[in-house]
Task: structure prediction
Amino acid sequence: MKKILTKGVALFSAAVLALGLTGCSGFRRFDPNKTQLYVGLYNGGWGSEWLNDAKARFEEAYPDYEIVITAMKNEYEYATLKNNIATDFNDMYITACSYYNYIKDEQILDITDAVTKDMADLGEAGKSVESKMDEGHRSFYKTAEGRYYAVPFGSSVWGLNYDVDLFEENELFISASDGSGSGITWTSGKEGAAQKSAGRDGKTGTYDDGCPVTWKDFQALLRRMKSKNITPFIWSNEVGYRNQILLSLWADSEGAKNFEKIKTLSGTFTDYKGEEQTLSEATGYKINLMQGKYNAVEFAAYISSNEYYDRSTGTFGFTETQDVYIESRHAASLGDRNRIAFLVDGGHWYNEDEAYIEETNHSRYPDDYGKTGRRFSVMPFPVFGDEVNTTATYLESSHEFAMFVNAQTERAELATLFIRFLCTDESLRRTTMMSGLHRNYEYTLDEDEIAQMPYYYQQLYKLQSSEDVDIVNVRQSNDFYIENQELASIIGWVFQGSFTNNQGKNTSLNEPFDDFRYYTKDGLTVDKYVEGSYKYYESQWGTMYQ
Result:
């Protein structure tokens, strides 16, 4: 009875929190003639508009059922939910899922039958959730025993978010360059101006036209911004965001195939000193010697040591920082601050701040506001070596965002039906159109659908659909990582370490952007940073590898 009572209390409490009051009549009443499915949604950057849309369509198609959505944030963070899921009232969830830990503790249901079932009942004969799932996610979610306990929902990328309008207005696009950082022909790219260069993919008419290809050209771009009183960067106080941007650059420098070795802990690579290294579970710490790691640290060091960042950088949370970024256009017109070119954030940022963006667009720029709003896009990372790889690689954001069913539910069949419904072509397309979120399945938007999306969503869709883009992740199914959770979240630890400063004192390192802001004057260099993190993790790894 204790378990039933606890679950009942949780249900009542969540109903109060999630459903609220309906005027003087009291709490909302569910339809007693319908079966309710309780869905817990992580109320983060992707919002809930797309899920409310799916709820309405599902209830129209299945009038005997009612979808009850509880959208919360802290309650559905991984650690909190994992501790409480056994007594939580929800039947299923759409949130971050530490997949193999849930399986190990038998907290989520085996949904293989639903994932592999033909979708003829949903109007898509010959397809299943499994067949539509992209190969990268399928290989992760399908266990060694051939079972599924969750399926991916969607993701975006960690890239260089930039203000397209600002680039046009200040001729920051490249028309021609030899990659040396000098002799660049700059352009607005507007009609009548010099045509934008083909960009890194070597193709015109794609998302990266006019963007710098080489590291030297990117440095030249930052110097040009400074000369025009434009602030290149702003980032929030979220350390994880900065680390993921740098991991994304690391992945781009290595390429998808080499970056995968971080997770498999196998194979060889050439380190930043030109020496060959061999990876194994015993020597996993050597990933800190990868050229991509060195390039990522160099990128942060150059930006921070040259103070190419806004004065409020690192001060505010991510939403406030997004607002400062958006408001910098207006603030610059008043002389309060420089306009800001790049925002360090994931692809979810626009949906997270869309209401604020629309409000400021309507009130301040009525002549500029159109169907697709102010224009922002994502720029590929610059190439550091002599060889230009035309395939850009990005780290996946929201990489653990998944759908799974509570092992305690009595409505498993209904829950899996709703999961399958959320994977129909219509649901996939509508989710992307409403949020910019890229679903991890095979589907295509037509030109009319793309045209209805904000400009930023359009660019994200084109990027993630491009044959010249690879998207990687840091999900690990490796037994070593599963058994050593301290190391499983590469995002959290891979840039930590220490160095000896000019005064001979040992100084801790945590995240390159901030570390070079504060310690460049104390003698911190890129080499010292990489060596310090390597030595630190060589010792730490040894305590965990048995």
Q: What stands out?
A: The longest helix spans residues 526-544. The longest strand covers residues 154-163. Confidence is low (pLDDT under 50) at residues 1-27. The CA atoms of residues 36 and 137 lie 30 Å apart.
